[in-house]
Amino acid sequence: MEMEQVLHMNGGDGKTSYAKNSTIQKQGMHKAKPILEDSIKTLYCNNNFPKCFKIADLGCSSGPNTLSFVREIVDVVDDTCRCLNRKAPVFQVFLNDLPGNDFNAVFRSLPSFTASLMEEKGSNFGPCFVAAMPGSFYGRLFPNSFLHFVHSSYSLHWRSRVPESLVSKSPAGAALNKGNICMAKTSPHDVHKAYFDVFERDFKLFLRSRFQEMVPGGHMVLTVVGSDIRTPSSKTCTVWELMGMALYDMVLEGLIEEAKLDGFNLPYYAPTPEEVKRVIQTEGSFKVRRFETYKIDWDANSENGMRGENVARNIRAVAESILGNHFTNLNMDDLFERFAKKITEYLEKERGQCTTIAVSLIKA
Amino acid sequence: MEMEQVLHMNGGDGKTSYAKNSTIQKQGMHKAKPILEDSIKTLYCNNNFPKCFKIADLGCSSGPNTLSFVREIVDVVDDTCRCLNRKAPVFQVFLNDLPGNDFNAVFRSLPSFTASLMEEKGSNFGPCFVAAMPGSFYGRLFPNSFLHFVHSSYSLHWRSRVPESLVSKSPAGAALNKGNICMAKTSPHDVHKAYFDVFERDFKLFLRSRFQEMVPGGHMVLTVVGSDIRTPSSKTCTVWELMGMALYDMVLEGLIEEAKLDGFNLPYYAPTPEEVKRVIQTEGSFKVRRFETYKIDWDANSENGMRGENVARNIRAVAESILGNHFTNLNMDDLFERFAKKITEYLEKERGQCTTIAVSLIKA
């Protein structure tokens, strides 16, 4: 499976689009705001006020969150400049995601974004040039020493590929991660190791690439879905475990071949806070300035009482492209109705939450 | 009419897409190739071999021509480096067009483009980062002194807007450019002046913006559809005059209201070679290195004998977004069938040709 071709959030602005279903990510951005502000202010003042402030948002996706991040950064720098009685810099912002992302939708909203920015900030401001740089962030995207600030929100839990040992058949012909579609409580140790190895390689490549692309003293703020399922006492489960159950029900009803489900593993690994820290330290390109974790409810911002349906729609916006690529001809509406029921049942017993890790780094 | 919203080539790769119908533009690029090569070689050697070579293609559209231009530039620089036994630079390429352009289609073809580039050039090459910068080139798109080389092919005949005097009603209520949809042989002097004024303002703004964005000694190669309809002896007409006739036939048949057609003028003005030269000289930011004109057959590359249909499809890919925005509910298939007939009849008598101006400039 070529990740660059199949992994992307649902485009457009229809009811299953990521644009309409990214409230968790929005909540996460809100919680990470103080870290982001602190990081930008420090960077901006310590870098001798660059005339052109170059920023990248890696894994930007499409939808309201995409440009609201840009807006946040511009606001912080602009406020800092006002306090210090300096002219705001020119901004050059690069939105990055895989080539399958719906950049057209982002671009269509750019003229009104820019117009309102200019109107609010006045003539002393900007300009703010917003470009797109498609490609995988597990590799180089920019020339050497180009960027001042890098941001990535809710993207780094996606892997560049599924671990090979999960794709190639084991000698006995049995699937290694049977009953699961990604790393889960019931996954054997070998599966954890295989997923962790890919995570470690990906994340080191990410850090090394950014180190090359950033100016000395450049800052980076990352938020990533973290995991505590490796805590033995944990009774909770992840949405992906519930998704696995919904798919397995469809196997039992003959709607999906068992071997097809056995062969499906998500390119997804949510690391523990310790794993994130350790890789940053071992790789050595960046120093940790702040490191925080917090929990976000799966159904953050649900107001209509349809908690299961809301969470299912959020996940659909994220996972439909990958599911559709593997399970061709599968009735997606059917799958996501079953999934919504599983979530509703779960939320009657447990508080569905997702751990988020937010980290602020500086180029060492 | 907000040009930024409505002017764009047809997206995707269907039978009326620009991707499938841009053979004239391809022919034009082919003819301009020697100028492009000469310009890049000179620039590259005189600029002390920049480590990161920054390029913009303004009005890139989407389709096979978009990346083949990037490929051409990369090839020329790479060849030059091989001859001089130097390492090729890192390339940072910015594709620009209005926000309504189908950038998604361009991005989808990027992974295979990059892969084949790396394979052919070998490990000593690159990398070549291809980004998109949406926005109007009649204004700023990049920070100061950022670009080494700028290219724009078959875009600068599109205006930022329709002249106001053609949109606001004249005192007598009669349309100023009646019977035409852009500047034509039969247009009155006032129409010519109105279109020329917008062209002059646009082109000066274009040159001034690029001057600010380019490094000292930076080069620019522009190709633009030129005009010789102001030559009194000229018996030929432009495709747009034939399009006007097809639309007028539909007025006579009651399919379009006459006032609706009277109110339609294209944001299009093909300047004469003298007009281009004069504006460059008056504006003063750039020195002309080479200035050439040549003619290209409307049906360049037509191989199936369906000359009228082929030309009509080329124009449809370019003009459908604007026509559809003004003449809502008009049957486009019907219009373009009539248009194809007009072209076929014309090509039985005349050799349909389009003048192209190619100019190579250096930042003064």
What do these coordinates show?
The structure is a homodimer of 364-residue chains. Chain A is an alpha/beta fold. The first copy, chain A, has one domain: Vaccinia Virus protein VP39 (Rossmann fold, 3-Layer(aba) Sandwich), CATH 3.40.50.150. Chain A contains twelve helices and seven strands. In chain A, strands 3-2-1-4-5-7-6 form a seven-stranded mixed sheet, sandwiched between helices. In chain A, helix 8 crosses helix 12. The longest helix of chain A has 25 residues. The radius of gyration of chain A is 21 Å and the shape is globular. At the A-B interface, strand 2, helix 4 and strand 3 of A face strand 2, helix 4 and strand 3 of B.
- Rg for CA atoms of chain A: 21 Å
What is the first-to-last residue Cα distance of chain A? 36 Å
Structure classification of chain A: alpha/beta
Mean pLDDT of chain A: 84
Q: Can you summarize the main beta sheet of chain A?
A: 7 strands, mixed
Of all chain pairs, the largest interface belongs to:
A-B, 32 and 31 residues
Gross morphology of chain A: globular
CATH-level-2 architecture of chain A: 3-Layer(aba) Sandwich
In the CATH scheme, the class of chain A would be: Alpha Beta
Strand content of chain A: 15-25%
> What is the topology, as strand order, of the major beta sheet of chain A?
3-2-1-4-5-7-6
Query: How many domains, in number, for the residues of chain A?
Result: 1
Instruction: Please give the oligomerization state of what you see.
Output: homodimer
The percentage helix of chain A is: 40-55%
The CATH topology of chain A comes to Rossmann fold
Low-confidence parts of chain A: none
- Let me know the number of strands of chain A: 7
Identify the CATH homologous superfamily of chain A: Vaccinia Virus protein VP39
Number of helices of chain A: 12
Topology of chain A as a string of helices (H) and strands (E): HHEHEHHEEHHEHHHEHHE
GO biological process, one term (chains A, B): methylation
Organism (chains A, B): Hibiscus trionum
Keywords (chains A, B): Magnesium, Metal-binding, Methyltransferase, Transferase
Protein name (chains A, B): Jasmonic acid carboxyl methyltransferase
